[in-house]
Task: inverse folding
DNA sequence: TTTTTAACTGAATAATTATTCATTTAATTT
DNA sequence: AAATTAAATGAATAATTATTCAGTTAAAAA
């Protein structure tokens, strides 16, 4: 009895992310994934029931992995700015180092593959950050704007900087990162 | 001789935008576009050579329409903040009122339909804004961070706020808009 | 070593989707 | 009002892509 090769799932995921970064969700086929992962098309179906399941499982994997990273070393008891800085830096680093995943998640949100419940579950994982922002508003440290505005602004801004850095092939240096943190902080600051 | 019905192009574009908003670029088919536009599939090919051409032409149309709106009433001679405010408000309003187009353009950037030269041409249309930001830096009014960071942050933040407003079905009020402008302004301010 | 069994293969099939085309319809010209 | 011609139609065809499956391979058990 030959056992399932768990490394293959990683290779399939890796291949999918690479192709989505290259051509978008609209550009991937099961054949291209198989080829990129150096396996036969049929093998994909041993690991995943179908294309939709493959995408959905990868999506959930990415969301789980990324959000759990976002909150490592985060202490909800620490002062607001300390907590915010921790999460902010975790996000920034993660998205730079895992650019393909970020692109993939973004694409999934506007695709026929990911259903509403999956999206909601993903959103749910950001609760600690939502709570933190609300605490910041209570403590009068940040603007009293609706949380979705503040968070959207910060998250969208960060994503876009990282995207442009990749496309224009710019290196993000430590001082640039500090300046970028200031963009976020000054924006939200009361 | 029956003349081409120019209104049909509008209907086709409109149908495509609606479907892309709903299901993403990965979710549209020529049949679904035709159906949504209340025409026969074959008719699509009278107006557009093929699917890629349809998408590319719609993309160019959207980019042209949106960027030209962004710079209406913009006076490059006016003080920095006045000019910035004009463009910022034009963008904000346009994206709220033409949400589908914004989503479509975003999706196109990561798709197999739009080629590099088309993307570059689109980027080129933002030159006046790039110039303005660079002027703001020279006048020491805003942070001396690379322009792509500042612009990316502002544009990404704005997009994401508007996206979340749509998905969570939030109305963006005038005071909210003012507060949102402050997010951008405070972020970039020196 | 032999047997067993599930992974693996990739060509074959099924399903979907892009594109074409013979036919019909309706503006315009004569 | 008849003739002309290009738009419009939608079923047929072509192309692409998802999925299956009969046969092969290799790990584990006997």
Result:
């Amino acid at each position: 009895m030959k056992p399932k090769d768990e490394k293959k799932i990683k290779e399939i995921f890796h291949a999918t992310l690479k192709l989505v970064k290259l051509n978008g969700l609209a550009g991937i086929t099961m054949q291209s994934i198989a080829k990129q992962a150096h396996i036969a098309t049929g093998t994909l179906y041993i690991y995943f029931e179908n294309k939709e399941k493959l995408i959905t499982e990868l999506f959930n994997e990415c969301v789980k992995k990324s959000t759990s990273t976002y909150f490592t070393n985060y202490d909800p008891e620490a002062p607001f700015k300390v907590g915010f800085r921790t999460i902010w830096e975790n996000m920034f680093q993660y998205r730079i180092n895992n650019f393909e995943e970020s692109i993939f998640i973004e694409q999934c949100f506007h695709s026929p593959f990911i259903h509403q419940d999956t999206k909601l579950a993903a959103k749910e994982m950001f609760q600690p950050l939502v709570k933190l922002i609300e605490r910041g508003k209570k403590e009068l440290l940040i603007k009293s704007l609706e949380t979705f505005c503040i968070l959207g602004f910060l998250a969208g801004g960060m994503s876009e900087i990282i995207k442009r850095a990749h496309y224009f092939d710019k290196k993000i240096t430590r001082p640039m990162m500090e300046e970028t943190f200031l963009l976020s902080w000054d924006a939200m600051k009361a």
Chain A has ten helices and no strands. The interface with chain B takes residues 20-21, 23-27, 103, 107, 110-113, 143, 145-146, 148-161, 163-165, 168, 170, 176, 179-180, 182-184, 186-189 of chain A (CB under 8 Å).
